[in-house]
Amino acid sequence: MNPSLGQTRSEIRRNHALLTPESHEWITQPDWPGAEIAFLISPDMGAKFAMGLVRSAHGLNDIAPAAPGVARFVFVLDGEISVSSGETLGLECYGFLPPETDVTVNATPGASFLLMEWHFVARGDIPAPVFGKLSDIEGTPLRGDDWLMVQKMLPTEAGFDGEVNIMTFHPGASLAYVETHFMEHGLLMLDGGGVYRLDDRWYPVGKGDAIWMGPHVPQWFGALGRTPSRYLIYKNYNRSPLERR
User: Which residues are in the Cupin type-2 domain (predicted)?
Assistant: First the structure.
């Protein structure tokens, strides 16, 4: 694969997309001084959320909260970030900032993290911020399969309208069936690799690849190689398909 010759593994389709590192476009944004952001998923492609990678060579200071009504989730890929309410997040730590959370974000030089934002659909009181470390979350087998473990980073109570999980596949493990549902996903491969089926296409995927899965797209993953495969995956959750975002 030679990007200088116009080659890329990225593919954008009506109801899904594969976004690969050689095609990332790193840009600056007025609301993120000192940062470069590669927005991988956005409403312009049909999604109802935004997902991007954020990096900063010299660090970030006092990044303002998300827009009104928007929830923000961060997952640290390198370095360290902190929020003005006092929490410090190192490698594979995370934070959920619900709408109207009046805190700012800071980052050490060289830090990078995954950023997800979506229009929050409230039910009752908006939940409080959530911070944690992935290694503190015990994995549970998906549908009893101990070769496929799930770590849930957000509570499952009705006040939360989204779910962000880490899925870990033993080499050779796969999802039990091809899923189709009204929820959509944003996914980032963290380790390992395998094959992802999206609609009627089959994509080899590896560390650093990102995927958008739109509502009702047939989807399936099988892990290949000799080491475990892990990905972070978001989905809208706990809400009826008739509740608009």
Answer: 166-232
pLDDT at 56 over 80: yes
Q: How far apart are CA 169 and CA 205, in angstroms?
A: 14
For residues 72 and 66, the answer to whether their CB atoms sit within 8 Å is yes
Predicted confidence at residue 133, as pLDDT, reads 98
Helix (H, G, I), strand (E, B) or coil at 66: coil
Per residue in 126-155, pLDDT (tens digit) is: 999 999 999 999 999 999 999 999 999 999
- pTM, entire model: 0.97
Six-digit token string for 203: 């994509």
Q: 198-213: string of b/e by CB count within 10 Å (b at 16+)?
A: bbeeebebbebbbbbb
Burial of 192 from C-beta contacts in 10 A (0-12 / 13-18 / 19+): buried
Give the closest residue to 11 by CA, choosing from 20, 1, 2: 20
The topology under which CATH files domain 22-133 is: Jelly Rolls (2.60.120)
Which pLDDT band, with edges at 50, 70 and 90, does 244 fall under?
A: confident
Note the pLDDT of residue 4.
72
Class of domain 135-236: mainly beta
Average pLDDT over residues 156-167: 97
Burial profile 17-40: b = 16 or more Cβ within 10 angstroms, e = fewer: bbbbbebbeeeeeeebeebbbbbb
Q: Which of 70, 44, 34, 60 is nearest to 245 (CA)?
A: 70
User: Shortest CA distance to 169 belongs to which of 143, 188, 141?
Assistant: 141
Region 106-111 average pLDDT: 98
Domain with CATH 2.60.120.10 in the chain: 22-133, 135-236
DSSP β-bridge partners for residue 71:
118
Structure-token pair, residue 75: 């997952």
